[in-house]
C-alpha cells in the first residue's frame, strides 16, 4: 500500500496559505484599488501606504502555525504507523494461508480467499478514509490559520493606516522590489504570537 494519501502538513499548509493570501490580496485589491471621485476613477494615492509581509518568515516564526504543523506531523506519523501495523497483520494472514492452502479443502480455500479478499478491500478503504479525514482536518485548520492572520492584519492595518498589505514569498511573488521600510513582517509576527499566547 502506498503512503501518498498522508501528506505532510508543512507543504499542504504552505500551499494553502499562499493560495489564501493571494485570494485575499485580489479581493482586497478590488475594493481598494479604485475609488469613485466625481465620476472618475483614481488609483490608490501615493500617500496611502502599502506594506508587505514576508510569508516565508511568517510561516516559520508564527507559534500557532508551528504548533499546528507539529500536531499534523504527529497525526500523519501515527496514521502511517497504524496503517503499517494493519498491513503487516494482513500480510501475515495471507502468508499463513498460502503456506497451509495445500492442506485445506476446496470449500475452506474458497471461504478463506473470500475473507482475505474482503479484508484487503477493507484495508484499502481504511487507508483512503483515514487519509481523506486527515486532509479534511488540515483544510479546516488551514482556513482557521488564514482567518487568524487575515483578521489580525485587518485590525493592525487600521491602527497603522495601511491601505494594502501584500505578501512576499521567495520564488513565488509578484513583488520584484520593495523598500525594506515597507516590510512589517517582524511586527506582525510579534503581534500574532502575543495574541496566540493570550489564548
From TrEMBL:
Report the InterPro entries cross-referenced here. Chaperone_Skp, Skp_dom_sf
The answer to whether UniProt assigns keyword Signal to this entry is: yes
Q: Which organism is it from?
A: Pedobacter psychrotolerans
Give the UniProt keywords, A-Z. Signal
Where are the stretches annotated Disordered?
99-119
In terms of Pfam families, this protein maps to: OmpH
Query: Could you identify this protein by its name?
Result: Periplasmic chaperone for outer membrane proteins Skp
Cellular component GO terms, alphabetically? cytosol
**SUPFAM superfamilies given for it?**
OmpH-like (SSF111384)
| GO BP, one annotated term | protein stabilization
Amino acid at each position: 500500500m502506498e503512503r501518498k494519501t498522508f501528506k505532510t502538513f508543512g507543504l499542504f499548509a504552505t500551499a494553502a496559505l499562499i493560495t489564501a493570501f493571494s485570494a485575499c490580496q485580489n479581493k482586497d485589491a478590488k475594493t481598494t484599488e479604485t475609488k469613485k471621485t466625481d465620476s472618475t476613477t483614481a488609483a490608490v494615492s501615493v500617500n496611502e501606504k502599502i506594506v508587505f509581509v514576508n510569508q516565508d518568515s511568517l510561516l516559520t516564526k508564527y507559534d500557532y502555525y508551528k504548533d499546528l504543523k507539529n500536531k499534523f506531523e504527529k497525526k500523519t506519523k501515527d496514521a502511517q504507523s497504524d496503517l503499517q501495523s494493519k498491513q503487516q497483520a494482513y500480510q501475515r494472514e495471507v502468508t499463513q494461508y498460502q503456506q497451509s492452502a495445500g492442506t485445506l479443502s476446496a470449500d475452506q480455500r474458497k471461504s478463506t480467499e473470500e475473507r482475505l479478499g474482503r479484508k484487503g478491500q477493507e484495508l484499502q478503504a481504511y487507508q483512503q478514509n483515514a487519509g481523506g479525514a486527515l486532509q479534511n482536518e488540515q483544510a479546516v485548520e488551514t482556513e482557521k490559520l488564514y482567518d487568524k492572520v487575515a483578521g489580525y492584519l485587518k485590525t493592525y492595518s487600521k491602527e497603522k493606516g495601511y491601505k494594502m498589505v501584500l505578501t512576499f514569498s521567495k520564488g513565488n511573488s509578484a513583488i520584484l522590489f520593495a523598500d525594506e521600510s515597507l516590510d512589517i513582517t517582524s511586527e506582525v509576527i510579534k503581534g500574532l504570537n502575543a495574541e496566540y499566547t493570550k489564548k
